Amino acid sequence: MELLHPAASIVIEFSRTSKTYRSILGRSVIAVEDFSLQVAEGEILGIAGPNGAGKSTLLSLLLGYLRPTSGSVRIMGQEPRTYVQKNGIGYLPELMTINPQWRADTALVRFATLANVPAPDVSARVDEVIDRLGIGEHRDKKIKALSKGNLQRLGVAQALLRDEKVMILDEPTHGLDPVWTQRFRDIVEKLRAPTRTVIIASHNLDELQRLADRVAIIDRGRLQRLVTTGYDQATDTGGTYRIAVASGAEQVAVLLPSAHSSGDGEFEVSFPDIEAMNRALSTLISNGVVVASVVPARSVLEQQFREAVGESK
Amino acid sequence: MKSNLEHYFLWQLRDFIRERGVAMLLIGLLFGMTVIVPMKVATSATGTQLTDRMATQILMLVLPQVSFITSFIVLNGLVSTDRIRGYYRFLFSKPVSVPVYYAQAFLVSFLGYCTVFTILLALFVAFVKPIMPFGTLAFGALVFLSLGGIAFFISSLFRRDWIVLSVVLAGTWIMGSWWGQKGGIRQAFVQLLPPLGKLTGQMDGLVNRGTANPADVFHVLGYSALFFAAGLIVLHRRPIG
């Protein structure tokens, strides 16, 4: 497992970090166990894991909201709380815990003030993020009156109030509609900068595959796998593909006996590599089958995730 | 140049007014009225003129309850509310020192408390009898500051701080009345508890003469200040999450 990112300087470092919650009655739950990982400057790191895997605990450790039971967490070589107190972090929590009586725009003014945005710039900065996240028509509503999606957009807006060097986004597209999910992805792409480090925790593997440079797959508090994402790797290997045909479905079963029909002219077929897939497609087409689409049935990340989580169980 | 927290002072003051100030004013009024209205009715029914002495006695009747209860309302949840409701997640991802943020919140609460207390006194002066308000205000401030450090410490440690604070205050009164005069180890134990007896002992002097026993005032304020400092240490050393 490659823990050290080659080249760039290290911004975030988990070193054999463990966190155990203990109740008054002495019962203990291990949330994070012996977790080691380094995140480089300019990197977008994804964190994936099933519910209860330890993702949120990991992020709380990174913000200094929790202290590790053993091991250490460092941001730019400093204790997380020391770093955050001095520099701040662009943080979008999974739970949108903002006082429900506050107005959306005044909440942003408050956060901008705390984020050290210079007083004369606060208003313009708030207007800018409101515009960017499309919540202008909701700006004078109370937090309690906002829908889940608008609240999520407000949360993203407050994380963007300042150009932070470190950003942590926990389930950022949760509750967003498809249009804003796509827009959010564009926003994250624009956040990519040589001096900025971004961590995204998400259940959405497709999102992490698109946005992150590497994805840490965690389960039961442990780092199970560190996957380097990227187009080349995703397409140069074999795997299972979903082939949809416009006509000639009956021919597919004959020409590709290993194909599993999932109905409506769709088939799932596994290939050892890209060349084998191309040969099979060529055979289909030359025998009169009209191929409508070919898409990976599962992304590389999804396969890795299934294997990693399966192994840990 | 002002720091971000100095800029945030007015937002904290606004939160105080909305979340605690109005409640403090209403409860102070209700408490006061339960004593003052029957007195006013009785004096007007008998045709008795309300003297300065009677007005002061009425004031001293309601003052301990109003000052203790309103201080309790203002002080409970000072730190723990943000922890229980998760507001800390947004607040402290910004470049903000946790102990400084809550020390400022305490200062805002004190100023807000004094302001509302002054309004309550002004209402007393307007509707009951003009009195010199400074000693009464000083007593109210003394009650707030004496409880403040203890409440701050408890709130920084416990999520259900109002329960713990109630137990501590009730326990102090009960222990004081049981063991306060017993001598020996029991009295020594009572000496370690919050010096609430010394606090209430200042009311007469402050309200009537505008004077207090400096040693007792030093004791109650010093005791509270120690706990306030302990609360700051807890906030500095213990993660907020």
Write the layout of secondary structure elements.
The complex is a heterodimer of chains A (313) and B (241).
Chain A: E1 10-22, E2 28-40, E3 44-48, H1 55-63, E4 70-75, H2 80-87, E5 90-92, H3 104-114, H4 119-132, H5 148-159, E6 166-170, H6 178-191, E7 197-201, H7 205-211, E8 214-219, E9 222-228, H8 231-236, E10 239-247, H9 249-255, E11 260-263, E12 266-271, H10 274-286, E13 290-296, H11 300-312
Parallel strand pairs in A: 3-7, 3-8, 5-6, 6-7
Antiparallel strand pairs in A: 1-2, 1-4, 8-9, 10-12, 10-13, 11-12
Helix pairs in contact in A: 3-4, 7-11
Chain B: H1 4-46, H2 52-75, H3 80-85, H4 88-91, H5 98-127, H6 134-157, H7 161-179, H8 184-192, H9 196-200, H10 203-209, H11 214-237
The fraction of residues in strands of chain A falls at 25-35%
Number of separate helices of chain B: 11
Q: What is the overall shape of chain B?
A: globular
Gyration radius of chain A, rounded = 23 Å
The separation of the N and C termini of chain A measures: 19 Å
Structural class of chain A: alpha/beta
Give the proportion of residues in helices of chain A: 25-40%
Treating each run of at least 4 consecutive H or I residues as one helix, how many helices of chain A?
Answer: 11
Protein model, in words:
The complex is a heterodimer of chains A (313) and B (241). Chain A is 36% helix and 28% strand. Chain A is α/β, with parallel strands linked by helices. In chain A, helix 7 packs across helix 11. The longest helix of chain B has 43 residues, at 4-46. With 241 residues, chain B is mostly helical. The two termini of chain B are 31 Å apart.
Question: What tags apply to this protein structure?
Answer:
heterodimer, A: 313 residues, alpha/beta, six-stranded mixed sheet, four-stranded antiparallel sheet, 13 strands, B: 241 residues, mainly alpha, globular
Short summary:
Chain A is 36% helix and 28% strand.
